[in-house]
């Protein structure tokens, strides 16, 4: 009898509790509806932002590939690369690529200027390429491949500056040694090889100082390293999401 009574009391308490919840929901229905609408709006906005981000990254990959294949570099090409760096330097995989692209385009533009009256502009472009890579060393400090690649490029550019009569021989050596210190294949091996022939290459300086570095066939600066990350651009949304 007592057990039946206790069960009845529990049932009444549960019914009263549910009734209170119902009354509260009725009184606050507008707030509940507003909250639900707010959640839907937040989710919708998040989806739009994410979708736009994916599309922006895909477009950036397309532009990157286009600029990478440019033969004759103009200032406009360098500006486009600079815009990519400003927008996507922190994006996985794409970030280091567009940063190196900006440096490479400045270097290629510099090497296309062979006139004596273009010497000042050529040096400025080489310095711009160098500054971009020095920044990359800091931005991608946790990416040893990107850092090693930056040092290899820095060494090549500095060697070009030495051949132009304005560079620092010891800095060339320092950059190669820093690439070796990163102990990342294949850059450590390449840097070691370049160091072994560095004195021989720079020994011809008096003969070529007045000529563009690209004319010296045995100069390391004649060809910059290939990108450290070799994956192709994302082909679908899933791979792009990982990069965003």
Describe what this molecule looks like in 3D:
This protein is mainly α and 244 residues long. The chain folds into two domains: 1-68; 75-229, Serine Threonine Protein Phosphatase 5, Tetratricopeptide repeat, CATH 1.25.40. Helices cover 73% and strands 0% of the residues. It contains eleven helices and no strands. Helix 2 (29-68) runs parallel beside helix 4 and helix 6 (144-163) packs parallel to helix 8. It starts with a helix and ends with a helix.
Mean pLDDT: 77
Helix content: over 70%
DSSP strand tally: 0
Number of domains: 2
Biggest pleated sheet: none
What is the terminal-to-terminal distance?
67 Å
The helix/strand order is HHHHHHHHHHH
Shape descriptor = elongated
Name the beta content range: under 5%
What CATH architecture of the largest domain would you give?
Alpha Horseshoe
The structural class is mainly alpha
Q: What's the number of helices?
A: 11
- The fold-level CATH name of the largest domain is Serine Threonine Protein Phosphatase 5, Tetratricopeptide repeat
Unreliable stretches (pLDDT < 50, length at least 5) are 207-223, 225-244
CATH class type of the largest domain = Mainly Alpha
Radius of gyration over C-alpha positions, nearest whole angstrom: 30 Å
């Amino acid at each position: 009898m007592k057990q039946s009574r206790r069960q009845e009391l529990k049932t009444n308490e549960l019914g009263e509790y549910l009734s209170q919840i119902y009354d509260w929901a009725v009184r606050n229905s507008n707030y509940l509806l507003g909250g639900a609408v707010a959640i839907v709006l937040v989710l919708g906005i998040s989806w739009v932002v994410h979708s736009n981000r994916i599309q922006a990254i895909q477009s950036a990959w397309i532009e990157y590939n286009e600029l990478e294949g440019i033969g004759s570099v103009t200032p406009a090409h360098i500006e486009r690369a600079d815009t990519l760096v400003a927008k996507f330097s922190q994006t996985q995989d794409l970030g280091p690529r567009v940063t190196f692209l900006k440096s490479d385009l400045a270097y290629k533009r510099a090497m296309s200027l062979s006139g004596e009256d273009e010497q000042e502009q050529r040096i400025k472009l080489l310095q711009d390429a160098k500054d971009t890579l020095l920044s990359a060393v800091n931005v991608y400090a946790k990416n040893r491949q990107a850092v090693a690649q930056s040092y290899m490029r820095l060494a090549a550019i500095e060697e070009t500056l030495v051949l132009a009569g304005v560079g620092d021989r010891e800095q060339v050596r320092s950059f190669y040694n820093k690439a070796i210190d990163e102990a990342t294949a294949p850059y450590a091996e390449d840097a070691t090889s370049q160091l072994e022939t560095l004195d021989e290459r720079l020994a011809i300086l008096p003969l070529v100082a007045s000529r563009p570095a690209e004319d010296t066939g045995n100069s390391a600066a004649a060809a910059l390293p290939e990108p450290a990350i070799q994956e192709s651009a994302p082909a679908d949304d899933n791979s792009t999401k990982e990069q965003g």
